[in-house]
């Protein structure tokens, strides 16, 4: 009997509570359903872009080209004209274009070494990692092909393994740092452009890229075959650079832009007619800037 006597009261209580709830929503004009609508109406936050077209700092690794070798004085580095981090106003390096002159002076580092080969890149990358840069530039490989002879060139397998090692060194510490990878220049074109200069050929005899530049005036079949083998190895290196970079979501290869650039006499050092001049360094900076700031990576 007590159960029956309490049931009407319980029903009345539930009804009253429901009415109060409805009244509360109506009175405020902002009940739970309206609040839910407000939350749902907020624009969803945009995901951070995978590639930052305006990195805050730059570190460079690589070889003599990134050190500005022979661009200012004979057989000497000139890092102030480096395409990657230099301060020269005529070059407008990648760092200057991205960070401005003051920013480049404070937040860019050049760890490239003249004569470096791909096997040296992991150690350079360790030094770059210590700066925690948002972008690392890589230009290396010419010295792997520029050896004393064709058999002395770095094998493609070792080239690949060393590049993968360098990328792993970076990723272990800086998983979100971006990487710009330049293709190896067209060494055969550099021979073709520079071999008409007597001074350049004399400097070549001091040991600059003998696998390609030795016997510069010889057009015989043996010399032609040697140069073709060097050129083929450079093209294989560039394929490795593109393949390894493509497996990293924060890496951009230049798509062969540097290899395909037609360096002329104005873009070559007037000391050795092989390394880039100031003008050549400026062109390299422009090519890099186009890749780094592109909305979509080059294919």
**SS-based structural class?**
alpha/beta
What is the N-to-C order of secondary-structure elements (H for helix, E for strand)?
HHEHEHEHHEHHHHEHH
Instruction: Quickly count the helices.
Output: 12
- Rg on CA atoms, Å: 30 Å
What does the largest sheet look like? 5 strands, parallel
What characteristics describe this protein?
299 residues; alpha/beta; 12 helices
Overview of the structural elements:
This protein has 299 residues and is α/β, with parallel strands linked by helices. It is built from twelve helices and five strands. Helix 3 links the parallel strand 1 and strand 2. The longest helix is centred in the N-terminal third of the chain and has 27 residues.
Summarize the structure.
By secondary structure, this protein is an alpha/beta fold. Helix content is 49%, strand content 7%.
Secondary structure: elements and pairs:
Blueprint: H1 2-28, H2 32-41, E1 58-62, H3 94-107, E2 108-110, H4 121-129, E3 135-139, H5 142-145, H6 156-173, E4 178-181, H7 187-194, H8 198-204, H9 210-213, H10 221-246, E5 251-253, H11 257-260, H12 278-293
């Amino acid at each position: 009997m007590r159960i029956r006597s309490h049931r009407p009261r319980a029903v009345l209580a539930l009804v009253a509570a429901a009415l109060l709830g409805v009244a509360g929503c109506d009175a405020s004009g902002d009940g739970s359903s309206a609040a839910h609508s407000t939350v749902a109406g907020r624009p969803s936050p945009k995901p951070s872009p995978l590639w930052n077209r305006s990195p805050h700092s730059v570190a460079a690794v690589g070889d003599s080209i990134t050190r500005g070798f022979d661009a200012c004085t004979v057989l000497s580095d000139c890092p102030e004209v480096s395409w990657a981090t230099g301060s020269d106003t005529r070059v407008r390096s990648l760092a200057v274009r991205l960070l401005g002159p003051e920013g480049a002076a404070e937040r860019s580092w050049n760890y490239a070494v003249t004569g470096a080969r791909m096997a040296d890149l992991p150690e350079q990358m360790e030094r770059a990692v210590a700066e925690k840069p948002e972008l690392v530039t890589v230009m290396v490989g010419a010295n792997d092909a520029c050896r004393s002879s064709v058999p002395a060139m770095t094998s493609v397998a070792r080239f690949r393994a060393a590049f993968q090692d360098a990328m792993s060194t970076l990723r272990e510490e800086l998983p979100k740092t971006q990487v710009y990878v330049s293709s190896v220049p067209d060494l055969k074109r550099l021979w073709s452009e520079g071999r008409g200069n007597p001074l350049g050929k004399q400097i070549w005899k001091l040991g600059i890229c003998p696998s390609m530049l030795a016997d510069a005036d010889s057009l015989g079949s043996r010399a032609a075959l040697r140069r073709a083998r060097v050129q083929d190895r450079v093209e294989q290196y560039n394929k490795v650079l593109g393949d390894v970079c493509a497996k990293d979501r924060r890496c951009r290869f230049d798509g062969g832009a540097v290899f395909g650039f037609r360096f002329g006499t104005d873009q070559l050092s007037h000391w050795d007619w092989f390394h880039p001049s100031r003008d050549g360094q400026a062109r390299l900076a422009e090519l890099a800037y186009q890749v780094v700031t592109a909305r979509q990576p080059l294919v």
